[in-house]
Specification:
single chain, alpha/beta, Metallo-beta-lactamase, Chain A, six-stranded mixed sheet, 6 helices, globular, binds zinc ion
Amino acid sequence: MNVETYCGGMADTNGYWIENDRVALLIDAPAGMGGWAGARCRERKARVAGLLLTHGHWDHIADAAAIQQELGVPVWIHRESAPLLEYPEIQAAFNPFQKIDPCKPDRVLEAEVRSRLEMFHFELLLCPGHCPGSLCLHFPDEKKLFAGDVLFAGGVGRWDLPGGSKEELMSSIANKLLVLPDETRIFPGHGPSTTVGEERRMNPFLAAFRPPRQR
Ligand SMILES: [Zn+2]
Ligand SMILES: [Zn+2]
């Protein structure tokens, strides 16, 4: 599985192209992702099977409508994040920069544990706390995790935005992410990639989850 990163928009948000045998899955849609993904399709003679949104914040959905309409790609999001995608003006208060086109999701996900889209097999981990309906995608065979804005290299997601909760965020990280193998590579919604082991050992926000002598 080949992973390529696009970074764009006012918040330097990461979007990912993951590909198996010329079939791609897109994860998140920062501004400019549609044009980038369209060019990749032509270059690699690949086809995009779907766009999965980790959550509905403006910086992750900016190009969702364009990707759906111009590339004809179905859009998936969790039920609890779907209103932010369908009515992006809800978040105008914390996005004064940009008008976002609304997008009606093709598939609204519930908290299902395992899912598949063509040859992609993954677990959808429901990780609330940063945003209601935040999903992390885990590819167990590949030891890869797409973490949205839940966990970053050396940081964790904001919990002060509407629907956020520090307790929920920390419990999502502890119970859904830190239980994964140390070598699992994390591709976050902002910043560089990291691993579960690295964050377990070094991330200052996760000190409470380490044995006392390692803090
Ligand atoms: Zn976010
Ligand atoms: Zn973000």
